[in-house]
Each structure stands twice: as structure tokens, then as C-alpha cells.
Amino acid sequence: GGMESLENFVKTAKSGRADFSQVVTAPGRDGQAPRSKTSTGSFEFSRPARFRFDYKKPFEQTIVADGQTLWLYDVDLKQVTSRKQAQVLGSTPAALIASSPDLNALKKDFSLEAIADRDGLQWVQATPKVKDGQLHSVKVGFRGNELAALDILDSFGQRSVISFSKMELNAGVSPDSFQFKAPQGVDVVKQ
Amino acid sequence: CASPQLAPQKEEVSASVWHGRMALQVEDQPSQSFSAGFELRGRAEQGELTLYNPLGGTLAALQWAPGSATLRSGNEVKQFDSIDALVAGATGTAIPVASLFDWLAGSNTPVTGWEADLSQLPQGRLRARRVAPPPAADLRVALDK
Q1: The predicted structure's pLDDT at residue B11
Q2: pLDDT average, residue stretch A64-86
Q3: Phi, psi (5° rounding) for residue B11?
Q4: What pLDDT does B54 receive?
Q5: Is residue A97 within a helix (H) or strand (E), and if so which, with residue range?
Q6: Mean pLDDT in chain B?
Q7: What is A5-52 written as a DSSP string?
Q8: What is the pLDDT of residues B74-83, one digit of tens each?
Q9: Which among A9, A74, B119, B122 has the fewest CB atoms less than 10 Å away?
Q10: Mean pLDDT of chain A
Q11: What sign for the dihedral angle of Cα B36, B41, B45, B46?
């Protein structure tokens, strides 16, 4: 089931890369249909604690966690903001798949529960133990042993579903994917 | 000849919705600088500004109406007595949100201490700089296409 796939994934997937498509759906309001936005890009990770989201559409944005610092580069705004990873990582969904070296480390930050299969995937629901209020829960979806989706619900009812495709595990992700260098002429703001 | 254009009365100006990302840089104040996705809805008198983190999670929801201004973030709710106090409470800087509606709609309403550049609005870009009082602040907005 989902729990075995998650345990297997956390143990065997040392690094990996995949394409992703993310659909963010704001809660429907006063009679209007809920509005959703789709973005696509590529994702890479390397245990422990390093991952990278390269958003390509509809706009370019790069998020790099290099193990110490989380960098966010917004190309349109020509700005990089950086903050200590520890401040942010604990309860972010990416931590679930990218950084915890084993299930016990994961259980430090999340309480885990296998839930019913849906859309042909086996799911585990992870609820953050630290109630910082932003993240309500994250469902991790597997197709057999392959990580297929993250279904993230925040405390305002906004839902973000990240679906992965062409996932390649332990296939030599280069370490400099996680070295962030701010491009020329871009302001860097340390928080 | 052009038919007479009836200018909309101020109250009937319909509520608008803007989606995009905004980045604020406050000179020598990294703690007040931030970048976030946003949705701005309503009008200067009554509206909502919701801020999102890059992965799509909601950071804070700001709502205001005549006589009330509320900030919801995480599991706390804070009341303020004005939209400017609300925005300063949420972001650390008194971003002129009421004028943001006008600026984004293309009218360069003057705001004391701020200089707005609407020249890139056709490409969905807005920039506004606070020149006074110090510290200087630089607000950049990129609207989703």
C-alpha cells in the first residue's frame, strides 16, 4: 500500500528528477466556480535536504534548496529572495520527498496515515505536527513504487496538486543543480 | 461621431480582480522585503488581497471594508482600523493598496512619497518606488497573462 511505497521511496530514492504539472485551485467563493491555475516545469532532488523546482510556464521561477538556504528567483520581478532552509523546510511538502533520509525523520515533522486508493494511486496522508498554520495536509500518491503526485491542502482551503511524470531515480542528478548563483543584475534579498 | 461616453460614477466602478506576483524591496531592511504571488480583488473601499508562497500555498488573506480591516494568516486573525495599517501589519511596509487598484487599472493616481511607473503596464508590469519617507522602497508587480 501507500505506506510501504513511501518507506521504499524514502529509503531507495537517493536522488531523482521529473517533469511536473501543478494545478492550484483556490476555494470557490460566493457562488463562483473555484478558479484553478496550471503551471509546469521540472523538479530535481537529492537527499538529504536538496531540491529544485524550475517553473517554466506560465512564468519562469526557480526555487533551489541547497541544503542550507532556500533560494527563490523570480525572473519577471528580477529578484532573488533567500532564507534559511531550516526556517521553511520542516513543514513544506517538498521536504516530504526530497530531504528526509528515512521514514522516522519524516515522522518527526509529519504524522503519517495510509488512506484509500484514488485515481489509480496509493496514498499516504501527512499532517504537519508543527501547526504553523500554513499547511493543512499533504497526500503523497504512488503508482506502485513510483512517486506520482503530491496533493497539498493549505489552511485556507487552497489545493495544489503536483503530478510528476518521466521520474528518473538515482540517475546521476548533478550536484551543481543545487548550487544557486544569482544572475547578473538581479537583486538578492536575504531574509 | 463618437457617442457620448458616460463616465462611470465612482461607486459604480465595478470590482476588479488582479492576479500575479509582487516583490518589495526595502533598502537595508531585508526583513521587510518579500516576494509573493497575489490576488487583489474588489475596490479601494472594499476588497481583499491574498498572498501566496511560490509553491501555491496561501500565506495571508487581507480583507477590508469601511470601518474594518482583517488579516488572517496561519491560524491567527488580527484586526486593524484601516487598510494601510492592515497592509503594514502584514508586510511591514505601508504599500498604498488603495492606489494599487488605480495604478493597475492604468490611472496614475498620485500618492505622496511614491512614484509609480505605469509605462510597462501593457506587458503586465508595474513598478512603484517610495522616495519618502526613508527607507526607500521598490515595489515590482508582474501580472499573470
Answers
A1: 47
A2: 90
A3: -65, -30
A4: 82
A5: helix A93-98
A6: 88
A7: HHHHHHHH-SEEEEEEEEEEEPPP-TTPPPPEEEEEEEEEEETTTEEE
A8: 778 999 998 9
A9: B122
A10: 89
A11: negative
A142-177 tens-digit pLDDT = 998 899 999 999 888 999 999 999 999 998 799 999
Contact A81 B35 (CB under 8 A): yes
Query: How many Cβ atoms from other residues are within 10 Å of residue A103's Cβ?
Result: 15
Give the distance from CA B38 to its chain's centroid.
9
Whether A40 contacts chain B with CB within 8 A:
no
Least confident of A36-45, A91-100, B87-96: A91-100
Which grid coordinates are listed for B85? 495599517
Q: Which residues of B touch A156 (CB under 8 A)?
A: 50, 58, 61, 72
Q: Cβ–Cβ of A191/B21 closer than 8 Å? A: no
Residue B87 grid cell: 497592509
Which of A55, A77, A84 should one mutate to test binding to chain B, selecting the residue with the greatest count of B CBs within 10 A? A77
pTM for this prediction: 0.87
Beta strands in chain A (DSSP E): 15-25, 36-46, 50-57, 61-66, 69-74, 79-84, 110-118, 121-128, 135-143, 146-154, 159-169, 187-190
CA-CA distances (angstroms) from residue A28 to A15, A34, A35, A159?
37, 4, 7, 11
Q: Is the pLDDT of residue B10 over 80?
A: no
Least CB–CB distance from A158: residue in B58, B74, B125? B58
User: Residue A160: which region, alpha, beta or left (left: phi > 0; alpha: psi -120 to 50)?
Assistant: beta
